[in-house]
Design a protein that fits this description.
Layout (H helix, E strand, L loop, with lengths): L13 H17 L13 E5 L6 E6 L6 E6 L5 H9 L5 E7 L5 E8 L6 H12 L7 E11 L4 E10 H13 L2 E8 L18 H7 L1 H45 L3 H13 L4 H11 L5 E7 L3 E8 L2 H7 L10 E8 L2 E9 L8
Parallel strand pairs: 1-4, 4-8
Antiparallel strand pairs: 1-2, 2-3, 5-7, 6-7, 9-10, 10-12, 11-12
Length: 355
């Protein structure tokens, strides 16, 4: 007997779970309402019976009248039978109703402060009270009532073993049928406000089916976007104002100095040599590949370079147009391994030019 296996791909990833938890918290903070979708009409409705009842009941309402089919849920050709019922029509959405006797249903008293993270709280309670973990079941919950004096919620949790429902979902998917909701109840008009496929996340169904909530979510997103743009513009204007204030303060401070201080500052600035890092970069760009610098000595008058070059003329001509320095002067040229050891002096220009 063939039974479709439970695939790990059917389970939400950790990233999806974290994203849904964030949506739950935001929807609770913004006051989104939950859409009641368990009693929405569906063209195809499947009834999953109690344990020990392998039969499935399918109701087809596509042609204006109800057609009822009895199927064997454990049959090898279940997917083929479902595909034959679907016919050549486009992909349809089906609703599954599970008999309450097939589920584990319990009622808990929890503080109302736990409502934004109710799914995580119920998952911990489930693992503590049953041998099942959250990834082994389909589950959902709803609030039955609240004690306003003690601020306690009466929460009902509905749990169904994954192995009970997963084969049917796989057969429906193989037949080209999309399951919109899996609810629990004795009948279509007596179902509980749960969707076992939601995993306890109530935000996504509401945003998907509730037009009011969708509009509110869109408005909130636009508001956040506008606030972000306004903040960036405010930051840019503040920085520009600070730059102008600093520039004005510098000009005012310079204008208020005594003439002797201003003359001394100008003399110091005139004596400043080119930055050493830029000088090195300029030397590296000016020297050909056959010439290598061995020693760089910085003096008040300029630079003194010790180079290894094929000949003295090559080294001197390469340094003839070094930015910030005058014409090179050959100080020494002596034979060395691989060429000549050349010492060249570069006088620094006094006009403030920099390489």
């Amino acid at each position: 007997m063939r039974a479709p296996s439970v695939r790990s791909a059917d389970r939400p990833s950790p990233v999806q779970t974290a994203f849904r938890q964030g949506l739950d918290a935001v929807s609770h903070a913004l006051g989104f309402t939950e859409a009641r979708i368990d009693r929405d009409p569906a063209q195809l409705t499947l009834r999953l019976g109690a344990p020990g009842e392998p039969g499935l009941t399918l109701i087809d309402r596509r042609d204006g009248q109800d057609r009822t089919y009895r199927l064997d849920g454990a049959a090898d050709d279940l997917a083929d039978r479902l595909a034959a019922i679907r016919g050549g029509r486009p992909t349809l959405r089906a609703k599954v109703i599970v008999d309450p006797a097939a589920c584990f249903i319990r009622t808990l008293e929890l503080p109302s402060a736990a409502l934004p993270r109710m799914r995580a709280v119920l998952a911990q309670e489930l693992e503590a009270a049953t041998p099942f973990s959250a990834d082994q079941v389909f589950s959902d919950w709803y609030v039955e009532g609240e004690d306003t004096e003690t601020r306690m919620l009466r929460v009902r949790q509905v749990v169904l073993k994954r192995a009970r429902l997963a084969p049917l979902l796989s057969a429906l998917a193989e037949a080209g049928l999309t399951v919109g909701i899996v609810t629990v109840g004795a009948g279509e008009d007596r179902s509980m406000p749960v969707d076992l496929l939601s995993g306890g996340h109530h935000t996504l169904p509401g945003l998907r089916r509730g037009s009011g909530n969708a509009l509110l979510a869109a408005a909130a997103a636009l508001f956040l976007l506008g606030a972000f743009v306004g903040l960036r513009q405010h930051q840019a204007a503040t920085l520009a104002a600070l730059d102008e204030a600093f520039a004005g303060a510098r000009l005012a401070a310079a204008a208020g100095r005594p003439p002797a201080v201003q003359a001394g500052t100008a003399a110091i600035l005139a004596e400043r040599g080119p930055p050493l890092t830029r000088t090195w970069d300029a030397l590296a760009a000016a020297l050909p590949a056959a010439v290598s610098a061995q020693v760089l000595r910085v003096t008040a008058a300029g630079l003194e370079l010790t180079l290894l070059a094929p000949d003295a003329g090559t080294a001197v001509s390469a340094l003839a147009r070094l930015p910030g320095f005058g014409a090179p002067v050959l100080r020494e040229a002596a034979p060395a391994e691989g060429g000549q050891r050349v010492v060249v002096a570069l006088p620094r220009l006094r006009d403030g030019a920099r390489p």
